[in-house]
Structure formats: C-alpha cells, structure tokens
C-alpha cells in the first residue's frame, strides 16, 4: 500500500489485496508466489487479509445456497406468461422480450398492433408475446380446430381442449350454450356451486373417447375462462363430476 | 407403444416419458392439480413434453425462488432479472424435449437461467451500458417478504446483492458461478466461454473488490467462532 515508489523490503511493504487474492488462486508466477507466501506468513496484517479472502469465498458459498423469494409481482407475471405459452402451444408462437421490441420497433410494431389487446397487457411488465397467424400453424391440432363448436357432441382430447375452447370463445362474443336443456341445467347447477357461477360455455363433447360436457366459467378477469370437463351431465337427472380442468386466457378481451 | 417407452428408471405407467421417439398421442390425464405436488421434476417435464398444459407451471413454481436467486445475483437489477428469467423459462418450456433424462432438471434449468443472464449482460455491454436508476424501495424488496426470513438473513442478503452490484459484471458473473453456485472453474469457463485462467483471475479480483464491501461480515463471524488459526490458511494452498 505504500505510494512512495522507493524499493522497500517485502517484509515491510504490505501486499495489496489483488496480489493476495491472486496468490490464493495460484495465479502468481512461481518466484513472486514464493515471495508473497513468505510475506503473508511473516505479516499479521496480510495474513488477516488472506484469511478474510478465504472466508469471503466460504461466506459467499453459504449465502449462495440460500434461495431468494421471488417478488410476488414477478412471480404472478411469470405464471401468466407460462399459462399463455401453454395455451398457445398448439399454434405457432413467437416470443420476444420487450427489450427486443424496443430495439426493433419497426419490425415488431405491426405484429404487436395486430396482436390482441390482452397480449399487450401481458407484455406490460416485461415481455411481449407475439402470435404468428393461425393459418400457417403447422401443428395438426390447429388444422382440425373450428372457430365455432358443432351443436352436437364434439370429439376432442384433453390435450387440445384449452386451445380449442380459446378459439371458440375468441370468435364468439356471447356465451356458447349447446346441448339439451337438461345438460345445460346440469352445467348451471355445477356452476352455482362454484365461486364463479357465470357460465360462458356449455358444450357436449366426446373427450378422450368418453361422453362428457365442457363447461366454461368466467374467471377472475374478463379474459380468463375456467374450463371444466365433466361427466354425468349427459344422463337425465345426472350430476356433474369434473375430471379435468384448465384455464384459458382470451387474447381479444 | 410398448417396450421402447420403458427404457429407463421406474417410469409411472401413466406418465409419458421424454425422448420416447414419437409424440405420445394423448396428454397425461392429470386429474386433480393437487397430485402435481407428488410428482418429481422428471415426471412433470415428461408430462409437459407430452402436452400437459399445467405441469410446466408447477415446475416453475417449485424452482422459481432458486432461479430468482441466481438471476438477481448475476444481474443485480430486478427488472433485468425478471426479464432474463422469463426468457429462460420460455426457452426451457420450448426446449423441454431436448432435455436429457439422465441429468437433474434443476441443473438443466439452472444452466438455461445462467445463460439467459449472461446474454443480457453481453447485450448490455454492447449497448454501452445505460445504467438504470437506483431504486431504494425496490432494492429493499429484493430481500424478500419481511415475514418470510429473519431480519439478519434479509440484511445479509441485501449486503451481498448490493456489494455484488458494485463490482464489474464479468467478475460478478464468475464469482456467482464459482463461489456462490458451486460450479468448478472448468464448468464456469465453459459457461462463460473463456479460458479457465480468466475465470480464476476474475474470481480473484472480484473477491479483492468485494472484501472491503463485506468486511463487516467477518467481524460478526469472528465473534461466533472464537479462534481460527491464522497460520493454517496459508499452509493449505
């Protein structure tokens, strides 16, 4: 630490912290390492720095083992992003960080404008999800999808239930109520027992080969639809028994 | 769809395996979401690859605090860390089928998160660093919800985060990987795409810079541990 520039004995001039840190990592050339090691042994102050650096590594390792709770807003946003990623898996999806969009506004703006308002909402905190057009989606699931469900039972798998329902509801501003009066009544009874009894969709279906009824309930926001697949409603006087549920986020609400 | 599906460790009969070579035609009929808690990481990832819409979300929930720790330490800024994690998880979501079943899911995720963070650092360096304004409230929030950890844990956590922020990004990334996350010098060199000697040197210089910033740690530590033989340390290397 001396600034004098005069040649002083190694035993008097303290080593700087960088040199001691380099010594610990074996980064010094052999003669210099030897001198430094001798000095540290003889100098209590440099020995202390040496020990402190070794302890620092240990302390950092201790601290590194601990998790840090993710802030609630970040976690919530992350969940929403994963959900929309999941819902849209069947179609071709491109994701760009907002930073990229900021940097390349001309390239992304038309797509952004074309994308639904809901998507922009999702983008508000950190990331924009830019959707490619459905027409060139290569996945098989997309090609079999219909914009509106048939009045009679639709054949579907739990696998593409979410994306399919999303598509129906995005193309139908009002509620979709299909099936017999009894089936719809059964769905309403099921809904009335839930915290969100507002029925947006009743659709007879054959899900994974079994006769079932798809019930869509209004979720926490106007964009979210909670979807249940139930059995029992197709039988006269039957009671709904859910076997699958998922949440769909509508992009145009 | 028989024997070739079951080439590895005790698979659950109803859960499709990753790398089965063909798409599994129907999703795992994952009924009640509560059952996800009992599934291990591999199973959740397998179900995700097979088309289950919810299992990846559970995987994220399970590991997000760990990954947040990595991102916030490496990047220092909560907004940056949130963006990096998001990119990382989306990338993991899409690349899940490339996961090799013999590794730990956390190791795989960890690596993706680290790379997403480093990408951001590199981009930031190219952009000639427009430093974000200091946000004190936000910084305090980083220590986590008040009710969750004892005050001294939060304080220490904040100390480290603040100290890490003050050293240069290359040194910080190397130190986080080697000292905090326990990667070997060679692994860190591979991740950082530089020579092992460079990693060592960044670690050494990073520690030297951190030392005065965190020296008060040692005084508390010395009061806990009565005497640590000073001579021992030199003899060890």
UniProtKB/TrEMBL annotation, chain A:
Keywords: Membrane, Transmembrane, Transmembrane helix. It comes from the Bacteria. The chain crosses the membrane at residues 112-132. This is Uncharacterized protein.
From TrEMBL, chain B:
The keyword Transcription applies. Residues 59-125 form the RNA polymerase sigma-70 region domain. The keyword Cell membrane does not apply. Residues 1-34 are annotated as: Disordered. It comes from the Bacteria. Coiled coil: none annotated. GO terms for biological process: DNA-templated transcription initiation. GO terms for molecular function: DNA binding; sigma factor activity. Residues 158-210 form the RNA polymerase sigma factor 70 region 4 type domain. It holds the Pfam family Sigma70_r4_2. Keywords: DNA-binding, Sigma factor, Transcription, Transcription regulation. Transmembrane segments: none annotated. Residues 1-15 have a biased composition (Basic and acidic residues). Belongs to the sigma-70 factor family. ECF subfamily. This is RNA polymerase sigma-70 factor (ECF subfamily). It comes from Kribbella rubisoli.
């Amino acid at each position: 630490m001396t600034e004098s520039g005069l040649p002083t004995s190694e035993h008097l001039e303290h080593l700087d912290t960088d040199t001691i840190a380099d010594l610990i990592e074996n980064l010094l050339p052999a003669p210099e390492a030897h001198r430094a090691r001798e000095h540290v042994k003889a100098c209590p102050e440099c020995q202390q720095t040496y020990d402190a650096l070794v302890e620092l590594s240990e302390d950092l390792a201790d601290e590194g083992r601990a998790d840090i709770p993710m802030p609630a807003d970040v976690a919530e946003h992350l969940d929403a992003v994963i959900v929309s990623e999941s819902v849209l898996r069947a179609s071709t999806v491109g994701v760009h960080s907002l930073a990229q969009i900021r940097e390349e506004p001309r390239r992304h703006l038309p797509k952004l404008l074309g994308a639904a308002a809901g998507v922009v909402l999702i983008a508000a905190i950190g990331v924009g999800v830019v959707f490619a057009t459905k027409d060139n989606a290569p996945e098989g699931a997309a090609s079999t999808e219909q914009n509106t469900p048939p009045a009679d039972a639709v054949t579907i798998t739990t696998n593409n239930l979410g994306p399919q329902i999303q598509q129906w509801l995005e193309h139908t501003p009002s509620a979709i109520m299909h099936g017999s009066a009894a089936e719809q009544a059964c769905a309403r009874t099921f809904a009335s027992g839930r915290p969100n009894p507002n029925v947006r969709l009743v659709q007879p279906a054959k899900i994974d080969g079994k006769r079932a009824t798809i019930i869509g309930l209004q979720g926490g926001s106007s964009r979210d639809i909670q979807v249940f697949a139930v059995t029992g409603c197709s039988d006269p006087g039957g009671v709904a028994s859910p076997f699958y549920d998922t949440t769909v986020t509508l992009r145009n609400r | 769809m028989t024997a070739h599906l079951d080439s590895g460790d005790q698979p659950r009969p109803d859960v499709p395996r990753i790398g089965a070579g063909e798409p599994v035609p129907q999703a795992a009929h994952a009924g009640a979401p509560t059952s996800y808690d009992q599934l291990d990481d591999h199973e959740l990832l397998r179900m995700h690859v097979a088309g289950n819409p919810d299992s990846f979300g559970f995987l994220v929930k399970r590991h997000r605090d760990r990954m947040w720790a990595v991102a916030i330490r490496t990047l220092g800024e909560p907004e940056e860390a949130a963006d990096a994690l998001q990119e990382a998880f989306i990338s993991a979501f899409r690349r899940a089928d490339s996961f090799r079943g013999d590794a730990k899911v956390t190791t795989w995720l960890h690596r993706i998160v680290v790379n997403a963070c480093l990408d951001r650092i590199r981009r930031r360096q190219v952009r000639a660093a427009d430093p974000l304004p200091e946000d004190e409230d936000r910084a305090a929030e980083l220590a986590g919800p008040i009710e969750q950890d004892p005050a001294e844990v939060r304080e220490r956590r904040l100390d480290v985060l603040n100290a890490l922020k003050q050293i240069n990004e290359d040194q910080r990334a190397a130190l986080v990987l080697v000292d905090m996350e326990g990667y070997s010098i060679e692994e860190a060199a591979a991740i950082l795409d530089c020579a092992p000697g460079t990693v060592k040197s960044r670690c050494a210089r990073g520690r030297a810079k951190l030392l005065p910033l965190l020296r008060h740690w040692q005084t508390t530590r010395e009061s806990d541990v009565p005497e640590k033989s000073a001579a021992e340390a030199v003899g060890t290397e």
